[in-house]
Amino acid sequence: MLEILMNLLNGERGPDVLRALQVVFLAFLTIAALAVLFAPKAKPGKVSYGLLRVVVTGLLFAVLVHQATWQLAGHTKPDFVKFMRRYNKRPNAAEMQVSRGPILDRRGLVLAAPVPGDMWGRRYPLGEAAVHPLGYYHSKFGITAVERVCDPVLSGFVSEKRDELLGKGLFSARAEEGAAVTLTLDARLQQKAYDLLEGRKGAVVIMLPRSGALLALVSSPGFNPLDPEAAIADEENSPAFNRAVQGRYPPGSAFKILIAGTALDKGLSPVYACPGLGYIVGANTPPIRDSEYYAYERKGAEWPGWGRMNMKDAMAHSSNVYFAQLGVACGPDAFNAMMAHARVNEPLVYLKGVSGELQSARGNVPEISKKRTLAQLAIGQGEVLVTPLHVACFTAAVAAGGTMMRPRLSRHEPVEKLAELFTPKTAEQIKAMLRDVVLYGTGKAANVPELEVCGKTGTAQAQGGEDHAWFTCFAPRKHPNIVVTVLVEHGGFGAKSALPVARALIEEADRLGYVRKAAEGEK
Amino acid sequence: MSRKNQTLAPVGATAGLFLISVLAVVCACLSVLGVKLSNAPVLPWQQLIPLGVWLAGVPIALVWLKLIGWKGDAGLVGAVFLLSGIGLVIQFRMGSFSQGLAAPLALAPFPLGLAAFIVGVSMTGKGRGAWLANMGWLAYLAALGVLAAMLVLGRSYRGGMYLSGNLNPSEIVKPLLVFFLAAYLSRRQKDFSETQNGIPVPPFFALLGLVLLWGVPMFLTIALKDLGLMMLLNAILIVMLFAVARSTGYLAIGLAAVTAAGFGVRLISAHAQARFDVWLNPFTDPTGKGWQILQALSAMYSGGLWGAGLGSGVPQTVPIVSSDFVYAAVAEEIGLVGCGLLLMVYAVLFSRGFRAAGAVRTPFERLLCVGLTGSLAVQTILNVAGVTKALPMTGITLPLISHGGSSLITTLLVAGLLAGLSDRK
Fold it and tell me: In tens digits, what is the pLDDT along chain B, a chain of 425 residues?
């Protein structure tokens, strides 16, 4: 009997069964009440106290009518409706629903919007393309990302201070409707970047260099924010993982930007011999070689080497042999100082919400004492790991004349400086070098006429499979207005897979008016 | 039809009413059980003990009524058992029995109440109640003793005084004072029946005597700050004065006096004033003093006409919902329709009680019957009116449904006395 009831209630039609039980209960209660009413009466006595009976029954009836003015017609009392909107915690009561505020992009386009009449309903026009920065709002799987840290604002708590939300303030500070949260994202770039990754595992960060505003924060593959269950369970592709801020990858040659900056800030701009056989680090370690060495080897030929080379050409051709020597020349102290300035070992906070912060993972660059490891680290290999957001931030520092800004996802936050990463002179020199990369070096394919793209490829050895491909760039050279960083997991050469995505995004950003003139307000 | 009804044995009719009640209660219980099981799939059989006692104990009580040849009012007893069954389901739903056998005190009230019911029937059944008239003064002193003991030993909790274990013996004060009034007034029926132009004018000394005697328990209830009890006792006094004099003047004067007293108490007691102000405008302090009543009204509103279903509502948003505010939970889960049916059953119970009073022989028993019925009726009206904000909240429980052992046992004792009084031999 109980099992049958349980099966019925746990099944799809459970609510119907409960409703039917309610109807049957009310029916039996009606029969019982009528039966009691018409039960046989004893013979009346001399006195019947009719007045008392009438008064008591009348009073009960009056109370019931009064009850109906609340129970059935409560919505006609404005104060009462206001009270229920704010304080009635029943999930199914229409009046309790504080309409959850929308999340908008920088132009006011809807990224997330409430569904009227559905407490947990949410509409995400960009769907899986923007699920990582926005997060999801799910009755079973909880609330994540922007939906989570901006929840008090979105769900109508007026107070901006966390302390005031505790205790009694939790109730007194609630508005009738949730407020909107405006992000720095541009929905068009976010969507375009996601489409360009074509489902490959990877990440894109697009940033305004002088304000730190994030125009796109893309991780691929994405998932449907309305149904996160499968994504959470998928351990092979881990679509729920935000690769743009949580993914840690060796930066490869993209790291050479920081090494060049370290050297130039120190006043070093040496010319090194770059022999074909590579730079010998130690007796028991394989020498550090240029990638051309292996290309020639595959063809059965012998790589003659770049010969004597300056920093400009070494950057353009991404010479490992040169940068290994440059790293060693910089020395551990200058290198460690640069890593500290660039916040590589710290999480980068990109949204300070009312109920928490959104931040990236920490990078990993070990403290250097031996020159040998420095040679490895200087070319972005070995133990060094960074997130795409870190790479975008130091690229933006070059673009902004040496100042590294805090990345920002919310337009409600002020522009904030993180560090003076390079001197303006150094930044200018690196810019020139990165321009050469695109003009005649490894990034030639990114040379969009008139946009003066400057960039750096990166190819990082990855465990199990092809190398990770990077391309980090900005444009235009004279007054960079936009930074694009692309990572494609196991994408092979940076120039092959990541670069075309970055180039298409720069072109798209130009069409949208972000490249040739500074974005309006720079926020 | 009516002929057949008259020949139908009262116990048989009561048993029939009980069978219909069982159907309604089992339905309600299944609904609550279903919701509970879908949250935690373990059968809470210990929590079902009180309902089991109801299911098995009521037939035993009926057999006993049959054996003693009881021929009282079937509707009255049927209403009592129906309401107590619904009350047990509601308390089961509220989790009042959630500790099971680990907290036997929570399970005990209904079995004890059933015993009290039988004691009550034995005391007044077969027209034997007349002898109780001699116990009037004893009842008066006992009531004073209980009130004084509470004043000395009790501790304050939510505006009322309780003994340890939140036992509230003031419940028994109500029937004790009804006994006293019935005995006292029935001997002075002539004095209190004197009227001039419809206005009652009892002789001065009779009035003075009553005022002095009544003043002592009133003083004690004010000292206890139990204004709900005071209001209830005065309402009972008015009903009984009306019954003894059969003059509507007492009802009118009484109503005026109670209203005046309400305003008067408001001036001298901060506690009463707070309750009064919350009643007038709960929205001035919605998250503080108005919180409970507004949450109760929100619960009702969300229940609507048909209710959320037993077990499917969220009445725990109302503070201390299982006792004083239980009606809000009932309204949320069985809707206005269910509330209307429940109030109808209450109305039948009171109507039958008053009706039975008219038929008993001695003036004392008649007054006792009116007084006991009146005490239940006033209590019900004050509670329901308080929860629905028709009147200020008085902290009075809803008979047979609210959580509270003292209340349930006392109410079933009173019901037993009424069942006995309705049996005229």
Answer: 344 444 468 888 999 999 999 999 999 999 898 888 877 777 778 889 999 999 999 999 999 999 988 888 999 999 999 999 999 999 999 888 888 888 888 888 999 999 999 999 999 888 788 888 888 899 999 999 999 988 887 665 544 555 544 567 788 999 999 999 999 998 888 888 777 777 777 778 888 888 899 999 999 988 887 878 888 999 999 999 888 887 778 888 888 887 787 777 777 777 777 778 888 888 887 766 788 888 899 899 888 888 888 888 888 778 778 888 999 999 999 999 999 999 999 999 999 999 999 888 888 999 999 999 999 999 999 999 999 999 888 888 899 999 888 899 999 999 999 999 998 76
DSSP output for A385-402: BB-HHHHHHHHHHHHTTS
If residue A473 lies in a helix (H) or strand (E), which one and from where to where? strand A468-475
User: Is B341–A90 a contact, with Cβ atoms under 8 angstroms apart?
Assistant: no
Question: How many domains in chain B?
Answer: 1
Distance CA B172, CA A312 (A): 100
ipTM of this model?
A: 0.93
- A479: buried, middle or exposed (CB in 10 Å: 19+, 13-18, 0-12)? middle
Is the Cβ pair B286, A46 closer than 8 Å? no
Chain B residues within an 8 Å CB radius of A80: 283, 294, 297, 301
Q: What is the rounded distance in angstroms from the CA atom of residue A376 to the CA atom of residue A285?
A: 10
Residues of B in contact with A39 (CB under 8 A): 13-14, 17, 73-75, 78
Contact criterion met (CB < 8 Å) for B302 and A93: yes
Q: Are B300 and A92 in contact (CB < 8 Å)?
A: no
Task: Give the tokens for residue B361.
Answer: 């022989």
Give the CA distances from residue B167 to residues B94, B114, B157, B238, in Å, rounded to whole numbers and listed in that order.
19, 18, 11, 28
CA–CA separation, A322 vs A314, rounded Å?
6
Enter the tokens of residue A344. 């590589």
| Closest partner CB to A83 (pick from B16, B286, B309) | B286
B16 interaction partners in chain A (CB closer than 8 Å)? 35
CB nearest to B354's CB, from A21, A36, A49: A49
CB contact under 8 A, B74 and A40: yes
Residue-range domains of chain A with CATH:
94-183 (3.90.1310.10), 188-522 (3.40.710.10)
